[in-house]
Amino acid sequence: MTNTTVFPKDFLWGGATAANQMEGGFHEGNKGLNIADVLPGGKQRLRILAEPGFNFDIDTDKYTYPNHEAIDFYHRYKEDIALFAEMGFKVFRMSIAWTRIFPQGNELEPNEEGLAFYDRVFDELHKHGIEPVVTISHYEMPVNLVKEYGGWKSREVITFFERYAKAVLDRYKDKVKYWMTFNEINSGLVMPIMSLGFSIQPGEHKYQSVAQGLHHQFVASAKAVEYCHEVNPEAQIGCMIIYAPVYAFDSNPENVFYANQEARLFNNYCGDVMVRGAYPAFAKRFLKEQGVELEIEEGDLETIQKGKVDYIGFSYYMSRTEKAEKTEEEKAQGNMMSGVKNPFLQASDWGWEIDPLGLRIAMNDMYDRYQVPLFIVENGLGAYDKVEADGSVNDDYRIEYLRNHIQAMGEAIEDGVDLMGYTSWGCIDLVSASTGEYSKRYGFIYVDKHDDGSGTLERSRKKSFHWYKKVIASDGADLS
Q: Residue 89 belongs to what domain range?
């Protein structure tokens, strides 16, 4: 892959972000509070969120809230988009903040200031020849819907989401060709607080609440898909899942079976419903064995069947290795999931195991199962970056990570996988979703902002910026 390329000429190269991790301006433009606004910063974020009784209130005496300012894309979007254009981006994945459009979530009419902001962003992208790829809900539902309704446990939230989705699909039908409904929807199976808007309380039946919340999201997503096809038949709208191949720790059939069960539940439960349009048999058995009784209203299953997505957007950071019984010492770190440590893999600064071949495995598994186009909308390396005396950031480790994953993508394309595009996660440094840190950097663009709140927010190009520009210009042929 040094002289020729297997990537199609219309391949969608770009970068990915989320509103709550980059915009800032958390109280500007009549924006309401969303879940990300009340998440404390620091390595203990996920532990704090997993504790029963998290109340979705801001407590500045105890915590910091880096998402409030983030990297101030709200005021600096023109500068950032110009840098994306300099790299040659064909697409830019971003999300719309639900609370910019409906500040409390249950209003009848949208907030014009919020709608106008995204008009300006989309216009700026188009000025530079960049197509937006828009996630409608990316870990930022209105806090009011959490406190008043219990998040996605409540069926009423379907109505509020449908109103929000219709508002943005109507407004931007001529400006956005590529949509996704819910970011990493299957994360709700392991960490419901960010995507489903609730934490599991003592004595609560986890899977009853989670499965019901996901069912409501499936119905809401299907309604958005149908409406998108109505307002712009040329648009494409997909789902978005975390995908992590699950390896058995060894050839013990017990461990192989356990790994297969874990893979089907995490990787395929949501995908099967949203792509195939029906609950799979394994999900029905799982829910029965967990004692879950889903409340499915008349017409729900027909709605899900009619609202099948056009493509699968997915994040890939790592694989996962499992065994039926594991000790605390054996556990690995991961993207909201933990298996056991794989002795054949190295890990990032945050303990996420690095497995480029796993991406090829994932792509083949998904395409064989679903036979719809795939779109890698998150993949990247969170690392500590050092700014040299001359201002440069020599992130060769990031280049190596991305090179190996792009090579794996090329191999999967040659295997026959239909891949639409690739948007590297955190193309500009932003606030980490899992830890609320600035120091966990993913970007090609360095942002002078630090965990203690200091920094100028000045942007600068890392070594990887120039490398990725060359990759895009050569359509993936030059990865040197």
A: 12-473
431: Cβ contacts below 8 Å, ≥ 6 apart: 20, 21, 22, 41, 66, 67, 70, 71, 437, 438
- Is position 174 within any domain? yes
Q: Model confidence over 385-429: pLDDT tens digits? A: 999 999 999 999 999 999 999 999 999 999 999 999 999 999 999
pTM of the shown model: 0.97
CATH number for the domain that contains residue 291: 3.20.20.80
How many CB atoms are closer than 10 A to CB 157? 26
Number of other residues whose CB lies within 10 A of the CB of residue 459:
18
Q: What angle do CA 396, 406, 43 make, to 5 degrees?
A: 60
DSSP state of 11: -
Active site residue 51: no
Is position 480 within any domain?
no
For residues 397 and 386, is the Cβ–Cβ distance under 8 A? no
Provide the pLDDT confidence category of residue 442 given band limits of 50, 70 and 90. very high
Question: Of 23, 131, 353, 378, which residue is the catalytic one?
Answer: 378
Per-position DSSP letters for 20-85, written without gaps between them: HHH---TTGGGPPPBGGGGPPPSTTHHHHHHSTT------TTT---GGGTTT-HHHHHHHHHHHHH
